[in-house]
Amino acid sequence: MTMMFRMMIAATAVSVAAPAAAQEVIVTAKRRGADNGYVGVVIPAQRPIIVLKRSADYVIQEVRVAGDTRETAARAEEINATLRNAIATAPKGGVELAVGDYVVEPLSSANYRNLSYGSDGRPDTSQTTILVKVRLAPGVDIAAARERVARFVTSVDKVGRSTMKLWGEPTLSMVNPDQYRSAIIDLIAADAASQAAKFGPAYGVDVTGLDRPVEWSRAGLTEVYLYLPSSYTVTRK
């Protein structure tokens, strides 16, 4: 049966910042929310029932790098030296280093000095947070990834009074979620066609939301849901 799909455009235009191709984004245990501070992100009221479930690309573990040498310049140089050692050690440890709260960007010798620093509440202390990534592959789960990160942190040569330690629980990341748009639309089309067919050949569907960015939420320890904030209505042709 040939089905008719009509794109419905909302009367009120909404500006949405879609991730650029190849961007890597963090998937937390909680769904993205409208109050999460991400500018331009528009979130549907609830996750649609039509979703694509797949493995995430990386496990991400925050690592806190800190120092408490009294002299400010010396403290900064010790932390920077430790960061340089971490960057050099990462390939041998089977990990990748990155930064970012939402969009993940590589941490390298070209940008590590751009990290922001804060204090842990004690005098003469500085600290910053980096991300250590482990690519998900057969035989690599959350526990194995965290153990690899812990071994990496132990292996890094810390300079002076600087330290590195795991911070918080691991989360996940996806590379370019929008690359799955076509597969998600296929799922929506198949479901819509199946439902419309139950009403007979005189019926088709009106679909909304296909022009929106791909959304995501965590589906399990290492899996994510990918979906479009879409809906459809069965209508007479």
From TrEMBL:
Q: What domain of life does the native source organism fall in? A: Bacteria
Task: State the UniProt keywords alphabetically.
Answer: Receptor, Signal
Entry keyword Signal: yes
Give the signal peptide range: 1-22
Is Signal one of the keywords UniProt gives this record?
yes
Write the protein's name. TonB-dependent receptor
